[in-house]
Amino acid sequence: MIKIIIGEMAASKGVSLDEISRLSGISIEEIQSYSTIENITEDTFVNLRKIAARLNLPVLDLVQPIANQLAFKFKISEMAKTKGLTLEELSEKSRIQPAIIEFYNTQAICQQTLTNPLCQTHLGKITEVLNCSLEELQFSEELPPTYFRLEEIAKEKGLTLDELSLLIELPKGFVDLIATIRIDYSTLSCEFCCKYWGSRQCGDCKCNKNLES
Q1: Domain match, 19 and 79 both
Q2: pTM of the full structure
C-alpha cells in the first residue's frame, strides 16, 4: 500500500491542487484518486512525474509507503449463531447498540486501536455474553485502504463531531474512534451507512437518512 502525498507537498509549496491540475493537465479527480494506491503503474508514474516537476520536487518525495499493520476481524455473528443468538439478541444482552455490534462484526481493526479502552469495553461485553475469549473470536486480516470521512460529512452539514454524535444517537467516543480508522464500506449494510452517515452511494437506495436536510 502506498500513500501519495500530493496535497501535503503542494501545500508546503503554497500551491493549490487546482493550480497543480491546471499546470500538469491532470484532472483534480485523478489527482485525488492517488491518495492511497496499491501500486504505481507506468501511467501513474508518468502523471506523478508531471506533478513533481510542477512542484520542483523529486517524484519520490510524493511517495510514502504505508507499513502493513497487524489487524484483526471478529467472527461475532458466527460465534453468536453457535450460541443460539442473533446479533439483535447479542445487542440486547450486551447493552451495546446494534450499529456498534455491526461495526465490530464487519471491520478489520489494527492491533494498536484494539488497545483503545472503548474497544476493550465493547469487546469485553461481547465476549462475556458469548462466553468465549477474544482469541476465539479474532482472526488476522489486512486493513482496508479507505477512511470514513466523518469530519467532512459533519462539516458539510454544519455540524461538529459532538453534534453529529447527538444527532445519530451514537456515543461520542465511538464516533471519534471510527473517524480515525480505516473502514471497509463493502462489508457494511446499506442501512448502517445511510441511517447513520447518509453517505452510502448505492443507487436506488431508499433508506432514511438522518443527515438529510
Answers
A1: no
A2: 0.56
Q: Edge-to-edge strand order for the sheet containing 36-37?
A: 36-37, 2-4, 63-65
Q: Which domain holds residue 58?
A: 2-65
CA distance 117 to 104: 14
Residue type, 98: P
Q: Tell me: pLDDT of 10 over 70.
A: yes
Mean pLDDT of 52-62: 87
C-alpha cell at 191: 442501512
With a CB cutoff of 8 Å and minimum separation 6, the contacts of 110 are 69, 70, 71, 143, 181, 182
Domain termination site, one of 115, 140, 165: 140
Residue 171 to residues 5, 58, 122, 162, 177: CA-CA distances in angstroms? 32, 45, 12, 9, 10
What's the DSSP call for residue 103? H
Counting the structural domains of the chain, the total is 2
Contact 51, 25 (CB under 8 A): no
Please compute, for residue 182, the number of CA atoms within 13 A of its CA located in the half-sphere on the CB side. Answer: 21
